[in-house]
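S.,

Sequence below, as promised.
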Amino acid sequence: MDEKTIPLNRLPVGVTAQASGRNKLGANLDYRALFEQTGECVFIIGLDFKFVAANRQALQLLGYEEDQLTGLPVESIMPLEDPSERGSLIDRQSTLSESTLKKKDGTLLPVELSISVVHNDMGLPTYIQMLARDISERKQAEISLKRHLRALSVIGETTAGLFRSPNIKTTIPEVLESLGYAVDVFCCALFNIHTPELMEQYQWVDHELMGFNIAGTLHPYLDVIEENPTRVFSVTGVQHPDPRIGLLSILVIPIQGAMGSWGFLALFDKQNQLSWLTNEFDTIQTTANLIGAALERLRYEETIRISEMRNRIIVNALPDLLLRTDLEGSILDYNANPSHPLYAPRESMVGRKLRDLWPEEVTKMILDTEEHKTFLNSHWVYGFSLPGHKQTFEARLHPISSGEALIIVRDITEQARLDQMKSDFINRASHELRTPLTSAIMMTELLQQGGSKEEMDEYWGVLMNELNRQKELINQLLLAGRLESGRMHLEAVPMDLIPVLKESVLAVKSIANKRNITIKLDTAQDSMMVMGDAGGLSQVFINLINNAVKFSPADKWVEIVTAFDGNEVGVAISDHGLGIPADAITHLFERFYRAKNVTVAEIPGSGIGLYIVKSIVDELKGSISVASEIGKGATFTVRLGRA
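The prediction came back faster than expected:
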């Protein structure tokens, strides 16, 4: 109770006397018609704090008949911490707040209440009007949004760690634990089905439910799961024999990888009955796919280790430079593929010392015998260069005996470049995920604190934009994975190119408007038939137009020009931005690649957009070319076969 609240026992006598008029109020036909036709849930409360009347919507909201509700005290429906608080309902002109109402069946319903006192011509309180609005769906949506943001956080924080981890087998259970806490389940498990047995690979179970039998719980559903291995399987409200669990819900998601189906991710829920939104399912599916990719990496690494072991035995098949040396670095034997950058005739190498051929610091790193004066262990020198050569090399030393060793020198120029690109990409992707996630969390906190309608609208808008940024990056990653693995097949069919171009321009227009950039579309004809795939070409042109806008200065324009060229249709997209260095153009369509001038200018991007563009155009038997001049912009031209 605040300082304005008048306790009930201090109300004027005339006020409480008005309660006797409640039956007359309910009988007024004109009033009743208006009362029933309103779309709001309306309750009329007498000054004795008993319900006088309620319209049809209000009765349905709480599950009462009118004669059951009439005469009930307010406290039976709307709990008050202190009965004297009833006086505040009369003292205040109008109140708007969130509360709960008790339904007839005893369940509590979250509502938004608007309470006001109606006065007569003499200015005396006559009755209390209470408008109620069901906000249970909004409350559930808020819970789901929080859970969804937590799940997105799991992806953002664990993806980089999962792929950087030197031991994926120990990292995957940690990912499952993070996912379990994020989506409020008590168990997550990865499993395969080897008829008729279920093979658990990895699992996490909440410490309060240790001993939960995953295989036994899933056994009744194995046939259904195995018959539909690419579909999501779910069951809710199953009575479990473990009294700690009670009603159980199960969600099983297939894990797809580049080598096909790996297995399944199972989630077990005893609280929320799997009451998740569609985007939460998408987030869980994304996590499953990332785990699948990590498991495939594990298989790849094991295959590579076996392959390297065999290759060390069959040394003559290696495309590397092989040296057998003694402790002094004298070359006892030599073999090299003629294509190796360090190739020299065998007779010119045998008998010479490494320090006479290569810099002393490189020789010391490779031989590593100064301390022990013997070859003890294998070791690896990665990423060194030699005078007169632009390439990057690695050297692997393997002891043959205490006085002899085999040195394998490999040209890793391309691998080093790819490793650097991948490292740069992981850093960029982590930043691209973390930045909008941080903003989204901040907006969620502001929404919880409340504010004016304009502020709330702004918070929701920013939150939606940041979540869309994360979704776009994840979609780009998934699309690049599908293209690389060959699981995305496009079918070239006769289609009109103009609508696709117009829709692509419209998709990017809002981004261009923020920087006052005009997109000019100049088409040769109203209709241009090509052999293509509408969905794939939308990805191509949205990426290219978005890049043109992103790299153009504010207040400039982007031009899109179409033309017939023999048996082809050409689409040229030009910007007036930084331009592309000549040495970067040959690498422009490689995965993760970004030109140095773009990186220096700190223009955001993941480095996979143009890789996706080139992959789709190639799949459709088309071509793409680039022309650019530093400081004046670039033009990307896509050519497709005419239909």
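DSSP finds 20 helices and 22 strands in the chain.

Coffee later?
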